[in-house]
Amino acid sequence: MKSVAIAFLTSLWLSILSPTFSAPTLEASHPKVGSTWKWYQLKGTKCADGSETGFGLSTYPNAKETVLFFEGGGACWDANTCYKLMTASFVTTGFKKELFESFAVPTLTTNRTITLRNETVANPYRKANYVYIPYCTGDIHAGDSVQNYPGANRTTYHHGFLNGIRITSEIAKRLPDTKRVLVTGESAGGFGAVLQYPHVQKRFPHARIDLLSDSAIETVGFLDSKPQWHPVVPKCKECNGIEFNSYLPGEALATPKSRFGALAWKTDTVLPLFYNVTDASFAPVITSYFQNVTQTKTDNAKTFRADGSSHVVGEHTYAKSSDGMVYVDWLNKFHSDDPSWTSAL
Ligand SMILES: *[C@@H]1O[C@H](CO)[C@@H](O)[C@H](O)[C@H]1NC(C)=O
Ligand SMILES: *[C@@H]1O[C@H](CO)[C@@H](O)[C@H](O)[C@H]1NC(C)=O
Ligand SMILES: *[C@@H]1O[C@H](CO)[C@@H](O)[C@H](O)[C@H]1NC(C)=O
Ligand SMILES: *[C@@H]1O[C@H](CO)[C@@H](O)[C@H](O)[C@H]1NC(C)=O
Ligand SMILES: *[C@@H]1O[C@H](CO)[C@@H](O)[C@H](O)[C@H]1NC(C)=O
């Protein structure tokens, strides 16, 4: 009886506090693209500067599908990279409502196929709820550590892993009707999506969880060289210790009824900078990783390689692979369980 009362009070409380539940769910017309994003500050989250952050949410009437989008923005691991070169975004500023509105919403309402609910393009996720998970921790959403880096006169909170867990738990509570989830992200957020995947599964135990990781590939040993973050990594059977590139195929093997995709440009123009290698020497790493993903025995992991040089495929709705596949068409096959879905090279 007591627990029923508590459950009732909790849902009442949620319905008062949460626009998600108090918003009319019987809207006659669909929400306009970009018009429904709202920011929620969330206790227990933390940016690198120690300040609290939150998440963005854009619900769709009666949606049973939810897209979790992990933002990208570089990485940092010492005083030089965090505060002098500033190779990670929002490490010194924190991330609150003002930044969400001035920085995130405008990018979420342009061509990002996955994050944009645009009915005039063939976006298979146009009727899903969208969650924006900001990136202000410099740690590819992997971290659980507090550092006082020599040469930096402030503390650095690499809290990205914990933020992901905290936000995902909150979303699972707010959107209990979710039957299908897409965990996705670009660049540092593409790493985050892969790293957080098993934890999203735990929070949505009755939903199917797919994964789409955009432009997130390591040179062997990169993650292992960042103990500063105390990275929290997936523990699946075929996930090989601290080798990031083993996680997506490992998760796919462990979850044969979901689909897993990896995206990249043939020549990635950003990742090599972080690994201090040339673009040309990184291209074979992409090829090798994509072969490994495609060869996953359960046949539920495929890749899309856009022909050209750039960074991040998801924003290029009509990017083409060398063999002529258009990205948004590949994405539709991914989403609809089309048996002809295959790696596009
Ligand atoms: C939706 O997509 C169409 C076609 O690509 C484009 O013309 C339009 O500007 C997009 N709408 C928004 C709000 O970005
Ligand atoms: C230390 O912090 C202060 C203000 O927070 C700043 O003005 C100063 O430049 C910093 N010094 C170094 C070495 O980073
Ligand atoms: C990058 O690699 C070059 C040689 O390939 C080396 O000389 C340089 O010190 C490296 N830079 C960093 C920051 O590790
Ligand atoms: C692909 O898999 C092989 C065999 O496990 C491994 O040696 C190689 O490093 C992987 N490629 C990449 C880029 O991770
Ligand atoms: C954005 O959408 C427009 C309209 O469909 C398209 O012409 C343009 O190429 C797209 N931009 C990118 C970067 O995909």
From TrEMBL:
InterPro entries: PAE/NOTUM. This is Pectinacetylesterase. Residues 1-22 form the signal peptide. It comes from the Eukaryota. It comes from Meira miltonrushii. Pfam families: PAE. Keywords: Signal. GO terms for molecular function: hydrolase activity.
